[in-house]
Design brief:
The chain is an alpha/beta fold. Helix content is about 45%, strand content about 15%. It is globular, with a radius of gyration of 19 Å. The two termini are about 35 Å apart. Bound molecules: S-adenosylmethionine.
Length: about 290
């Protein structure tokens, strides 16, 4: 089961109004959606995700509040369509929780994890075209090294890319993890393939481009007085959110509510280790 992160902080910064309309852009298994829905009377929450299987689970997990929830399957680029489908032009709050869900990361069939063997997939949306297997087996060595270096912030990217190209075709997660492990020795606590897997996941799902799209669309979808709350887990993403919110502040389009990112409380980190790198930022639209 996926445990939603920073629930109290999300609710505080969204400042839910019972008659308000909300957009959970990354509904996952429905943890935050459920918390928002419970606080509504006449309001609505649109639960969006690009992962159809997760949405199906969210639907089951939130069944008690079904009358207040509209589900939408799509990427961030399709969010205006999600609003239109619900008969809305704007919402009073938008939440994005940018991590992959625990379900995605741990189901071997989804191919995100090097802890169990599975196909090299890593697509959050299984109807999308490109898989990690395509990237690993068909990208030129230099481009692969650049990708692992830039998205995985992996200093040993060249060595890893060379080893991958020599070992092709690579068909499974454990096969890839083994190739990386033999190419670069373990230096610390982390498995040596951690950053390579992260880079591939980001590339397969075009996560950087998607976040740019979200940051461009969100201010237009949230009504004056409404809030945008974004939780990120990587410095690359938090930097983008910080910059986008700062420029909204400079242009007097929004008020920044979090001068510094809000971090989970110690007790949450001790109960849910996955929350430890979460950073929450919020703005209120003018
Ligand atoms: C951390 S999970 C969300 C968990 C959720 N807040 C909960 O409490 O259950 C992040 C979700 O965002 C989805 N996601 C990531 N990028 C997306 C995008 N660009 N468009 C739509 N959904 C996306 C993933 O498929 C994943 O299910």
């Amino acid at each position: 089961m996926h445990i939603p992160v920073m629930v109290a902080e999300v609710l505080q910064y969204l400042a839910i109004r019972p008659e308000g309309n909300y957009l959970d852009a990354t509904a996952g298994l429905g943890g935050h959606t459920c918390e928002i829905a419970q606080r509504l009377t006449t309001g609505l929450v649109i639960a969006n995700d690009r992962d159809a299987e997760s949405l199906e689970m969210a639907r089951r997990n939130t069944a008690a509040w079904a009358d207040r929830i509209r589900f939408h399957h799509g990427t961030f680029s399709a969010l205006p369509g999600a609003l239109a489908e619900a008969g809305l032009e704007t919402v009073n709050g938008l939440l994005a929780d940018l991590r992959s869900s625990r379900y995605q990361l741990t189901d071997p069939q989804r191919g995100f994890s090097f802890l169990a063997d599975g196909p090299l997939d890593m697509r959050m949306d299984r109807s999308a075209r490109m898989t990690a297997e395509d990237l690993v087996n068909h990208t030129a060595e230099k481009a692969l090294a650049d990708l692992i270096y830039q998205l995985g912030e992996e200093r040993r990217a060249r060595k890893i890319a060379r080893a991958i190209v020599r070992a092709r075709p690579i068909r499974s997660t454990l096969h890839l993890a083994g190739v990386v492990e033999r190419a670069v020795p373990r230096t610390g606590r982390l498995h040596p393939a951690t950053q390579t897997f992260m880079a591939l996941r980001l590339a397969v799902n075009e996560e950087q481009q998607e976040l740019d799209k979200l940051l461009e669309l969100a201010p237009r979808m949230v009504a004056p007085g409404g809030r945008i709350v974004i939780i990120s887990f990587m410095s690359l993403e938090d930097r983008k959110v910080k910059e986008a919110f700062r420029s909204l502040g400079r242009e007097s389009r929004a008020v920044i509510l979090t001068k510094h990112p809000i971090r989970p409380a110690e007790v949450e980190v001790s109960e849910n280790a996955a929350s430890r790198s979460a950073k929450l930022r919020a703005v209120e639209m003018k």
